[in-house]
Amino acid sequence: MVTTAADLGVLMAAIATPYDADGAVDTGLLSTLVEDYVSRGVEGIYCCGSSGEGLLLSADERTAVVETAVRAAEGRIPVVAHVGALSTREAIELGRRAQRAGASALSMIPPIYYSFGIEAVLDHYRAVLDAVDLPLIVYNIPQFTGTEFTLETAGELLGDDRVIGLKQTAHNMYALERMKAAFPDKAYINGFDEVFVPALAAGARGTIGTTVGLQVELFQAARRLLDAGDLVGAQRVQSRINHVIAELVAVDVFPAAKYLSGRSAGGAGALRDCRRPFRPLSEAARTRLDALGATLDRFLAEG
Where does the signal peptide begin and end (predicted)? Predict the structure, then answer.
């Protein structure tokens, strides 16, 4: 299943990476997680991004995650592989592996750590596009990478037919709207769950999020209400989404979201802690997250 821009108006879960008792990727648990997400209405899987600890995994582990997700999805929903890496060489290799694994599309952060100029960043993207025969979603997450994509800096990429969209993990709705106005055929995908409704209003077509797998039913409800013209109703659902997010952030967002993701694979905590240097969750944090799980159950039951 190769993805086009038209396929990206979806609710895509940025999936966590489960580990077994030895710390290896647990492909069985990952398959279970994908199956539960599909059954609940998740419309796409995003592998090895921030939520999936992609930069803490080896190339072989990242490949195993993509292969497993593709097999588990069975062509029912798109599977996007994040292949961002420190070097262009590594990103190309990860992209080629993702293509062989059957990924629907690639996504990629710009190169990090060194203060690369925008021309070096664009060269990096062009090299991957030239080496891998899959469409690409540019991943804009400036608070982590130090590079912000706007119309001025991303225009050349958005003008490339091989680039089908941009994931806007930034609160700059003005930049999103300006890119949408200039390149309306591309898919602009929200990346911050807390501004899902505002991003749709600004021109986003879908979302890729850490909490989509936890509360896809709320995202469905918010989208449905907004499509029906009920902005107040959509804002009310966004507020519930944001209550969950605020609690996760108060604990430590990625380890906390991973803990609750286990609810889809045997119960909260079924997914082991994130890799170091993330700190293991304390018992107090787990107790707080269990209470959040009960609140989330109530939200989901009430719609």
Answer: none
Residue with tokens 């497993």: 68
Determine if the peptide bond prior to 110 is cis (ω within 30°).
no
Greatest CA separation for the chain: 50
Q: What is the pLDDT of residues 118-155, one digit of tens each?
A: 999 999 999 999 999 999 999 999 999 999 999 999 99
Cα–Cα distance measured from residue 111 to residue 146, given in angstroms and rounded to the nearest whole number: 9
What is the tens place of the pLDDT at every residue in 171-199? 999 999 999 999 999 999 999 999 999 99
With CA atoms as reference, report the closest residue to 45 among 77, 82, 3. Answer: 77
Question: Measured between alpha carbons, how far is 225 from 235 in angstroms, rounded to an integer?
Answer: 9
DSSP string across 65-90: HHHHHHHHHTTSS-EEEE---SSHHH
Instruction: Check if the beta carbon of residue 128 is closer than 8 Å to that of residue 91.
Output: yes
Name the 3-class secondary structure at 134.
Answer: coil
Backbone angles phi, psi at 2, to 5 degrees: -95, 130
Q: What is the pTM of this model?
A: 0.95
Burial class of residue 227 (count of CB atoms within 10 Å of its CB; 0-12, 13-18, 19+): exposed
Q: Which residues are catalytic?
A: 139, 167
**Which token pair is 265?**
């694979």
C-alpha pair distances (Å), 159 with each of 76, 164, 234: 29, 10, 33
